[in-house]
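So, who can interpret the following?
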Amino acid sequence: QVQLVESGGGLVQAGSSLTLSCVTSERTLEPYSVSWYRQAPGEERNLIGGISRDGTKVYYPNNSMKGRFAVSRDNAKDTAFLQMNSLTPEDTAVYYCAAAEAEQLGIVVLPSSQDYWGKGTLVTVSS
């Protein structure tokens, strides 16, 4: 059983940057692709981006995410990261990381295909 724990959320001002972390303490993260999602109040959970097991491939569903958000990982520390820049109040949401068993260069992005989820970390951006 893989347990994922997100951290790094909080209250920030518009224009700020923030880096979220996703760690697993019970097993190595290496066998899994990792994806980040967010869910704003009253909205669906949306994909931000995903990264392959070895970190060489990254996927973003749209250019707006790719420009301000960056997904990365450090397998030596069993940690994945989400770097967020130029935050706006519209980025206010609960941010989740998820992991799924995958081929070496595969990235699992469908929420229904994820094997494990963290409980999320709240990011609030004030204007």
About this structure: The longest strand covers residues 93-101. The longest helix spans residues 63-68. The radius of gyration is 13 Å. Residues 3 and 79 are 12 Å apart (CA to CA).
